[in-house]
Amino acid sequence: MQQPATNDLGYRILDTLKCTLLCLDTEQRITYINATGEALFENSAASLVGRPFSSLLSQVEPSTIADKLALEPIALTEHEAVITLANGKSFVADYSIYPYAEAGSDTALLLEIRASERQAQYARAEFSQLQQQATQQLARGLAHEINNPLGGIRGAAQLLQRELDRPDWIEYTEVIINEVDRLKNLINNMLGPANRLQRKLINIYQVLEHIYKIIHAAEPERIEFHRDYDPSIPSLMADRDLLIQAFLNIARNAVQAIEGRGEITFKTRIGRNVTIGQLTHPLVVQIDITDSGKGVPQELSETIFLPMITDKPDGSGLGLPIAQDIISRHGGSIQLHSSDAGTTFSTILPLEQS
């Protein structure tokens, strides 16, 4: 047996599909496999064609796909089946079996295997949860370590203030005391134990416009802003101040990613039947903040939401973890999409609580 010529347009199209396609003859030997299948089974088509399909599966771990192929050839689909290969690799997939017959030949089978997106979502959700736990542990440690010296600084400033007899010097101690109080409030609100969300009915458009005004005032010439809002998005129940802090952290990260002049886009859209963690929400709002910067380095893309992880010389590495924690407390998620052309942080928030 030989793989069909790949210069045929139809077969070239099949090679572009993200699912694995195999053709099996009456003895369930492979007569065709597309490029995605070659990657899945880690073998070339030349070495796979002619082999029994069962030889690719584990002979130790049971597989429903082997049981279904042993039945009379009928069209069927199995969802979220565990498939274990001969090399020990296991994965969750949906698969379909389609009997077909060409003129003058016996019935053959077309086998389609599609990697389960839900499994990938579960893995991402689990990793995100571990990141959040690391952030919370660091936050509690930072709150304790920073609050103690801040209390000492405030006390020393108050003692010094009593000894000063010049009003202009007293102004400096007032600045110290006020800034210490501000930092203590910030630590308690952002790095301390999570307080109960102060949910109110808010419009996400107003939150993003508030952030736009802050960023635009700081970068009126260097950054060109684009706003692409869906006016049909309903209001949602959320903590307005915390959402402002989360999106402000993301927007500032976008500004810092741009060297010289660049562009930032705020975009909102409605999503339906979106899975966050292990819950599927009938209605969500997606907020994309996109910059035209150089993109996130590949080695940071998997850990960028961990505390103290940053590629910026003056970055604290806390902005994105804090943003993720706030969005997570609202039942949402943040996803990163980055390339050399720029970076998009997509935030998804459920709307059904509204």
Protein architecture, described:
- The chain is of the alpha+beta class and 354 residues long.
- It folds into three domains: 9-115, 2-Layer Sandwich (Beta-Lactamase), CATH 3.30.450; 116-195; 197-354, Histidine kinase-like ATPase, C-terminal domain (Heat Shock Protein 90, 2-Layer Sandwich).
- It has helices spanning 9-16, 35-41, 45-48, 64-69, 117-163, 167-191, 204-218, 240-257, 298-301, 319-329, and strands at 20-24, 30-33, 76-84, 90-100, 108-115, 200-202, 223-228, 236-238, 262-276, 279-291, 333-339, 342-350.
- Strands 2-1-5-4-3 form a five-stranded antiparallel sheet. A five-stranded mixed sheet has the order 7-9-10-12-11. It has a two-stranded antiparallel sheet with strand order 6-8.
- A hairpin with a 2-residue loop joins strand 11 (333-339) and strand 12 (342-350).
- Helix 5 packs across helix 10.
- It starts with 8 loop residues before the first helix and ends with a strand.
- The mean pLDDT is 82.
CATH class of the largest domain: Alpha Beta
Q: Hey, roughly how much beta strand do the residues contain?
A: 25-35%
Mean pLDDT: 82
Radius of gyration: 28 Å
Q: Helix tally?
A: 10
CATH topology descriptor of the largest domain: Heat Shock Protein 90
- First-to-last CA distance: 60 Å
Query: What is the architecture of the largest domain at the second tier of CATH?
Result: 2-Layer Sandwich
Largest sheet: 5 strands, antiparallel
Q: How many structural domains?
A: 3
Low-confidence stretches: none
| DSSP E strands, number | 12
Structural class: alpha+beta
Can you list the strand order of the major beta sheet? 2-1-5-4-3
* Helical percentage: 40-55%
Shape: elongated
CATH superfamily of the largest domain: Histidine kinase-like ATPase, C-terminal domain
Taken in chain order, the helices and strands follow as HEEHHHEEEHHEHEEHEEHHEE
